[in-house]
Amino acid sequence: MQALMPVEEALRRLLSAARPLGIENVALDAADGRVLAAPVVARRTTPGADVSAMDGYAVRAGDASAMAALELIGESAAGRPFIGRVEPGTTVRVFTGAVMPEGADAVVIQEDTQREGETITLTQAATPGRHIRRAGGDFATGDLLIAAGHRLRARDLALAASADIAELAVFRRPRVGLLSTGDELVRPGTGAGSHNVILSNIYSLGALARRAGAEVMDLGVLPDSMEATQRGVHDALAGGLDVLVTTGGASVGDHDLVAPALTSQGVELAVHKIALRPGKPLMFGLAPKRDTAGGDTRADDTRAHVLGLPGNPVSAHVCALVFLVPLLRALQGETVPTQPVLKPARLGADVKANDHRMDFIRATLAGDHEGVPIVRPLPVQDSSMLSVLARADVLLVRHPNAPAAAEGEPCVFLALED
């Protein structure tokens, strides 16, 4: 019997072949969730000049003691600076964001003043530099603001915009095709019989892939015939995909046709059967390089990655978290750890000794102890039961051959959602 490949080795093989995809420029309003292919460098200094941080009066601190009376000579508002200079004994009304007038070195907030006509009496003394935002206090021209490999968030887009940048260079989104197999599968809402299984993987896997930045295509459901499976794989690989994900038919039974169909289309399977639970039948490989003369518009020559997931919905979901999501991140050049991040916790119940497979146990978070989460395994772990997966908060990870552990002992978990 062929030995099962350890999860760590399977991940290493999967990610070793992943290269960032092509680069494209996108407008800021289309850049949310994209991964930067080039650093964001400031094109301007912000603030561009010393500005007031409060509504009040711009003064010379040297002649702005408590109860000093100053002559009001004008005002400075955001976008409408005062043209002139604050001389001894004078002041300028300023508003938040307004450029500080020449000669002034402090702001007295309006609550600390009294006004009678054009005379301003200070009830508090001014402090040099008080309530002023200095030029370049946020960033200066040429500053590195965001490094390449960073997945952009809403606040990153605001930062880029404030640096006078309208477009960003980002890695292309991976194009993922989801191909389901099985005579038993029917779409939800179509009136399934008792002999049918309602297709669910397409929705969970599609959501995970989109959250990881991919464009997702539903390639339909194939019947359990070698001819149909080969044709479906051929057509999928001819469609310019970066990643083909199949579900079902990944084992070695009479109706498990995906592996031979893939190899018949030239896919080199680097892995078939991994030492994890749930999801042992997982397989992946690389498709042949495509002939771009057929209309393929891809700017890169990356070979399509093929990931064959089990049909059981829980197994497919776990395998997608452990393998598909890291692959998609690597294809986008993301610099955060692409491999699953295991977080420390403590057991909320006793667990048995583990066998030779890495076990991903559906579990809930049951509070914490001194800031460390407590993870409690759910009592049922059947890989076909989506209700258990939906009820779980995390996956308790048990390494191969881990000994039995008691409640309160250290453990690690993988988050189910980002």
Automatic annotation (TrEMBL):
Pfam families: MoCF_biosynth, MoeA_C, MoeA_N. The keyword Magnesium applies. GO terms for molecular function: metal ion binding; molybdopterin molybdotransferase activity. Keywords: Magnesium, Metal-binding, Molybdenum, Molybdenum cofactor biosynthesis, Transferase. InterPro entries: MoaB/Mog-like_dom_sf, MoaB/Mog_dom, MoCF_biosynth_CS, MoeA-like, MoeA_C_domain_IV, MoeA_C_domain_IV_sf, MoeA_linker/N, MoeA_linker/N_sf. It catalyses: adenylyl-molybdopterin + molybdate = Mo-molybdopterin + AMP + H(+). Its cofactor is Mg(2+). The keyword Lipoprotein does not apply. Pathway: Cofactor biosynthesis; molybdopterin biosynthesis. Its EC number is 2.10.1.1. Signal peptide: none annotated. GO terms for cellular component: cytosol. GO terms for biological process: Mo-molybdopterin cofactor biosynthetic process. SMART domains: MoCF_biosynth. Residues 177-330 form the MoaB/Mog domain. PANTHER family: GEPHYRIN, MOLYBDOPTERIN BIOSYNTHESIS PROTEIN. Belongs to the MoeA family. Catalyzes the insertion of molybdate into adenylated molybdopterin with the concomitant release of AMP. This is Molybdopterin molybdenumtransferase. It comes from Ancylobacter pratisalsi.
